[in-house]
Amino acid sequence: MGYQVKYKVWIEADEHTFLGNGRIRLLKTVQELGSLNKAAKQLNMSYKKAWDLIKSVNHAAKEPLTITTTGGNGGGGMQLTPYGIRMIAQYEALKAATTTFMDQQNFKN
Amino acid sequence: MGYQVKYKVWIEADEHTFLGNGRIRLLKTVQELGSLNKAAKQLNMSYKKAWDLIKSVNHAAKEPLTITTTGGNGGGGMQLTPYGIRMIAQYEALKAATTTFMDQQNFKN
């Protein structure tokens, strides 16, 4: 078996982590379920950890990626802002381009 | 200030780390100084840590990257094998190609 080229890509804002694979997974699950609590449960993550991650994302961001919705049947929820949806799409495009590039690299024995 | 795309590249062999920036720096310093002890000192690294890193490199490698030389004036030393020199060159080519690619990526606000 040969050598494997490994890589990791993430986004920072002023030396703070903004987006990485874990944050994107959480944001997409929030988008799907409309609730941070449900998203945390689905990802087997504590609510506190999920909340801290979302806080850290929005702290590093130029605009909020999530919005908290209150009231209604079943209490409050969380949704993505249009900016959040755009950031996810941009991250996924970067990941796809990087994967295409890295898959072309090899490291010979 | 905008967002920054960050990345890390390394080489694995059968799920073990083979080469990364730190290991390459150590190997190049060994090559330059002809001694693991001197290389460790120059990099402010304990001899044990340097030795463990070299052992880990050679453990993951298909062929040894270093060779221990004995005797002579000043005692034993360490040099790179032709295979080791080729691995460093290959790693640096990969890093350069990756840097060129990643520098073309951007992440808009």
Characterize the overall form of chain A. Answer: elongated
How many structural domains does the protein architecture of chain A include? Answer: 1
Helix content, binned percent of chain A: 40-55%
Name the chain pair with the biggest interface and residue counts per chain: A-B, 27 and 27 residues
CATH superfamily of chain A: Winged helix-like DNA-binding domain superfamily/Winged helix DNA-binding domain
What does this structure look like?
- Two copies of one chain form a homodimer.
- With 109 residues, chain A is α+β, with helices and mostly antiparallel strands.
- Chain A has one domain: Orthogonal Bundle (Arc Repressor Mutant, subunit A).
- The first copy, chain A, is 52% helix and 21% strand.
- Chain A contains four helices and four strands.
- Chain A has helices spanning 21-33, 36-42, 47-60, 82-104, and strands at residues 3-13, 16-19, 66-69, 77-80.
- In chain A, the strands form two sheets. Chain A has a two-stranded antiparallel ribbon.
- In chain A, strand 1 (3-13) and strand 2 form a beta hairpin.
- In chain A, helix 1 (21-33) crosses helix 2 (36-42) and helix 2 (36-42) packs across helix 3 (47-60).
- The radius of gyration of chain A is 17 Å and the shape is elongated.
- The N and C termini of chain A lie close together (9 Å).
- The relative contact order of chain A is 0.19.
- The model of chain A has no long low-confidence stretch (mean pLDDT 94).
- Strand 1 (3-13) of chain A pairs antiparallel with strand 1 of chain B.
